Amino acid sequence: MPDTSHSDLDRLCTDTIRTLSMDAVQKANSGHPGTPMALAPVGYTLWKGFLRYHPDQPDWPNRDRFVLSAGHASMLLYSLLHLAGVVEVDTEGKRTGSPAVSLDDIRQFRQMSSKTPGHPEYRMTTGVETTTGPLGQGCANSVGMAMASHWLGEHFNQPQATLFDYDTYVICGDGDMMEGISGEAASLAGHLKLANLCWIYDNNTISIEGHTELAFSENVITRFAGYGWNTLHVKDANDTEALAQALHTFKAHTDAPTLIVVDSVIGYGSPNKHNTAAAHGEALGEEEVRLTKQAYGWKHDEPFYVPDAARIHLRDALRERNQEAYDDWKQARDHLQQAQPALAEQLQRLLAGQLPKGWDSAPLAFDTDEKGIASRQAGGQVLNAFAERIDWLLGGSADLSPSTKTNLTFDGAGSFQAGHYDGRNLHFGVREHSMGAIANGLALSYLRPYTSTFLVFSDYMKPPIRLAAIMELPVVFVFTHDSIGVGEDGPTHQPIEQMAQLRATPGLLTLRPGDANEVTQVWKLALAQTHRPSAIVLSRQPLPTLDRNLYASADGVSEGAYVLAEAEGGDAQVILLATGSELSLAVQARTQLQADGVRTRVVSMPSWELFEEQPQAYKDQVLPPAITARVAVEQAGPIGWDRYVGHQGEKVVMNSFGASAPIAKLQAQFGFTVENLVKVAKQVL
User: Fold this and answer.
1) pLDDT in tens, 390-441
2) Which domains does the chain have, with CATH numbers?
3) Looking at 88, 184, 432, 609, which residue is catalytic?
4) Among 246, 479, 614, 630, which one is least packed by beta carbons within 10 Å?
5) Is residue 184 annotated as part of the catalytic site, yes or no?
């Protein structure tokens, strides 16, 4: 159909996006050309006329965020970054002199080590705000970004000096709408009245299996109205005037997030508008590409053709429209430096990914206590102690803070709610999946977030935990109720395989402390991370606080594993390895073994990842190869312990699901007793 709403130059830029997308996918013989073709006018209109973004300053803290949640349409984003002339910024924040996405980068679409991978990846390509691909994740990330804009504005904006008020735009599709995480995130965004959040829903009615009517017939507008969103409908993705009016309406709306439903035809412009390749993620084929370019009136014999006029038009429009806003931001930053230098230093450290000076200078210490306290309770005390020193540490739970002990209780902590966006206690509701992804969005926006729930529900959070690791985000995921110690709640709430799952995630630091002083150390380690997330795993039941005059300092946690108690009377004959609540059990078993004449070493092993990073000499010092009699004890599944106990060692672990019973009976039933551990240790000798 003819598109009369574009000027000739705008149409030229739009068709450049379309043809670059076709050519890149065709050359790679892999990818999704249809959605970038359909959404080219949508992305272009948003960037040219509305997005607060300066191509020479892509790390401008108050830039609007553009999230392509429909990450399979990555060529839409790469084409926009190319035409916008966005400059590349390296990991140290320096301009490299290269474009963020060059034409050669587009030619290398989906190839090894290119800046144009199959789905947009954060840290790999300047201008990519978050890694997307798993559908719905970008939607939930955007909620965190929008929350961060409000929180940062409350803490740093001054009269006549605005430092943070950016908007967040998302392009999402039918798949995002079907995934449950988008509903969780949209529900919370509506509750919080995040009026700085706009989702643009590409309603093209096509999924991989065919027309969406096969599995999706709900009224999305009605659903989002029920969430408390402002909803708008643009009936033709090529009607850029209607889209611009919808975006103006979003900008004017002040008490709710906005959903703009845009009807599109996937693979727009192709002579075969129902082309299965365009719909299902395949190259169009050379003949289809030629015919489609012919329909655009395009050069069909020159792949990756970018007209000179298109090369500068979007870049110049962004510069002209946003230069004044960028200059105003720099003046606001200078004003803050003069008016409140301490707050300006805080902002500088926050933007640099640093924590305040001295945040870890006096870590909380716990006195010896045979009865002890639950590590979740110690964790809450340690968290509060550190949070009082780190003003941008904030977080919450999936409706479980009374159980996870992660509520910030000091004066001024407050709750983050609609109209009160300065609070540091976040209330996610029973939405574990979106909680993790929202935390990732907060971390992508300079803040230091933590989340919490029961360990068994880490199952609901695996995708955002994995993406935090891929993006190298220092989110802290707190998991309590870490074992069959949950007791009467039974096997549905007693985690077994979850520790192995967390440990199997590359780039994730998993920490299971054995007493209160180890809790202090693991929190310190987690907060010190700058490029990896952490999972802190804590107990429901009390754990004895060990006498550090008798046993090694908890500082050894930083090595991942350390000799807590050395054998007495000569070299060790057997080594007991333990984590978490089983550490005190190993200590008690050692006492009995020593009394029986068995020289026993106890190794506390709160983090496999940190231990594996140590020099081999240190690892051999903690676990001497000559001592093959080893027993690992952990109320979790067995996977992974073999590399530490070897073929001659044994494992006192869980090989089944738990049961509903008081904790003492569960421990006796599954062998987590001093008597059984002593028995197994003697057997390995």
Assistant:
1) 999 999 999 999 999 999 999 999 999 999 999 999 999 999 999 999 999 9
2) 8-324 (3.40.50.970), 369-544 (3.40.50.970), 557-684 (3.40.50.920)
3) 432
4) 614
5) no
